[in-house]
Structures are given as C-alpha cells and as structure tokens.
Write a structure and sequence with these properties.
- It is a single chain.
- By secondary structure, this protein is of the alpha/beta class.
- It has two domains: 145 residues, Rossmann fold (3-Layer(aba) Sandwich); 111 residues, Rossmann fold (3-Layer(aba) Sandwich), CATH 3.40.50.1860.
- It contains eleven helices and ten strands.
- It has a six-stranded parallel β-sheet with strand order 4-3-1-2-9-10, sandwiched between helices. A four-stranded parallel β-sheet has the order 6-5-7-8, sandwiched between helices.
- Helix 11 links the parallel strand 9 and strand 10.
- The longest helix is centred in the first third of the chain and has 18 residues.
- The structure holds D-glutamic acid.
- D-glutamic acid (DGL) binds next to helix 3.
Length: 267
C-alpha cells in the first residue's frame, strides 16, 4: 500500500477529462494535476520540444510532489515522450494512447475507425502504431484538428466558429464513413457535442479517459500501490499559467473538486 498521490499532467485543461474519470473510479486516491497552461498548446510544437516539456513536468511531479505514478493525460506528450519518461522514471508511467486505441477497436462494428488529434500526435504515427498493435482487423483514418484545443482553452466549447471549423476538419472522416471515432486529444471530449453533430449521431465517439482510469486501477492493484486509507482522496491542481483562469474554467469543466489552484513558475 502506498499513500502518495497519483500525478497527472496535460498542456492545460484537456487532462481534466481523464482526472474526472480517475476521481470517479478511484475516489479514495489523492491526485496532483499539473496543467502547463503557460506553454500550451503542445500540439503544434516540434516533438523534441514537447519531449523536453513532458520530462520537465514529470520530474516536477515525481521530485517535488512525490507522486507514486504519472498519468500522461496528454496524447501529444505521450506521442513525443512516453518511452523516455518510462526510461527516466522510477514510478509507473501510464499514457492515454494504448487505452484509447483498445477502446476504439472494441467500439467498431463496421471496422472503419477514425482518430483525431493534434498535429503532433497524428504526425507522430503513435495511433497508427497503437491501433496496429491491437491486431484488430480495422481500417483506420486519421485527421489532425489544429485549432480545437485553443477553443477549449478559451472556454468556447459550443460556438458557431468551432462548428464551422469542425465541419472542415472532420470532412475526411465523414467521407471515410467511420462508425467509431477516437477523440485522440484529451481536450476534445469538451467539444463532443459539436463533433457529434458534425459526424452524425450514429458515430460512436470514444474517449480514452475511462479506459485510462481502468488501466490506472489495474496497475495499482498489480503493484500494490493503492492507497491504504478508505477516506475520500485529496485533489490538488497546479497551473503554470493564469491561476484565476484555471480555477474559473477548470471548475466549470471538471466540477466541484477543483476548488483551488496553486501556481507554478518555470524558472
Ligand atoms: N490535450 C493534449 C493532447 O491530448 C494537447 C493539447 C495541446 O495541443 O496542447 O494532445
């Protein structure tokens, strides 16, 4: 048994979709969530730079917050740095990519599946590899959706502008007639209504959040790292950007657990 918190990070608010699933599934675990809002978005940056950021944040979580596990709740960071983080870290590192790919191939009936993500994630080929690794007989179409993350970070999840952008970016997936679409960026579940409207109600939208939370639970059980106490967990949120904005938008997106935010400045 291990009473240390679970660490989790994203470039900003997106990982809160994974935090929500984790808090719901494992209410007794303590959590430290880091949103690197001073440096978001990660998606358009070169993968080398994202790799450096991911390593820096992971070290901060392990060394300063003494976490027992790191959940990379950012597809772009996982695509850029997962192997390095696993190599550098003494604690288990969990990503959203493999759980997402597994959930996607389970959801399809026609075998035509899609993944959307940031330019960094789609360009890295991480999902193409993860879906292939499932060995499911599916036909995969991928599309990068630059601009979606910025809408979410501004708190604009249901506007006419985001709808117009979604119609343009999702057109190839509508054309490919996918029946299941993985939201391969943790920000995108906040745009689910818009994405669902554009794709059509019959298309299943798959989020990696729940599947990742199940993976965390399985690892805690296998490694004996679960928390001893049965009391409700403590949830801390840290942001490298505007703390007041993180609290205002974050509590709207995550819920009442986000009732305070600590600041962090990169030196
Ligand atoms: N939420 C992050 C992801 O899953 C990325 C967003 C960004 O571009 O910063 O990829």
């Amino acid at each position: 048994m291990d009473d240390r918190p679970i660490g989790m990070f994203d470039s900003g608010f997106g990982g809160l979709t994974v935090a929500r699933a984790l808090i719901d599934l494992l209410p007794g675990e303590d959590l430290v969530y880091f949103g690197d809002t001073a440096r978001y978005p990660y998606g358009p940056r070169p993968l080398d730079e994202v790799r450096d950021f991911a390593l820096q944040v992971t070290k901060l979580l392990v060394e300063r917050h003494d976490v027992k596990m790191v959940v990379v709740a950012c597809n772009t960071a996982a695509a850029a740095a997962l192997d390095l983080l696993r190599f550098e870290c003494e604690v288990p590192v969990v990503s959203v990519v493999d759980p997402g790919a597994r959930a996607l191939v389970r959801a399809t009936r026609s075998g035509r599946v899609g993944v959307i993500g940031t330019v960094g994630t789609i360009g890295s080929g991480a999902y193409q590899r993860a879906v292939r690794a499932t060995r499911a007989p599916v036909e995969l179409s991928c599309a990068a959706c630059p601009g979606f993350v910025e809408f979410v970070e501004r708190g604009e999840t249901d506007s006419e502008q985001v709808h117009v952008l979604a119609e343009r970016l999702l057109a190839p997936l509508v054309e490919a007639k996918v029946d299941s679409l993985l939201l391969g960026c943790t920000h995108y579940p906040f745009l689910a209504r818009t994405i669902g409207d554009v794709m059509g109600r019959e298309v299943v939208l798959v989020s990696s959040a729940d599947e990742t939370a199940f993976e965390v639970r399985a690892i805690l059980a296998d490694t004996g790292l679960g928390r001893r106490s049965a009391a409700k967990g403590n949830h801390r949120f840290v942001s490298s950007g505007d703390v007041a904005w993180f609290r205002a938008l974050g509590s709207r997106l995550l819920g009442p657990e986000l009732d305070g935010v600590e600041g962090w400045e990169w030196g």
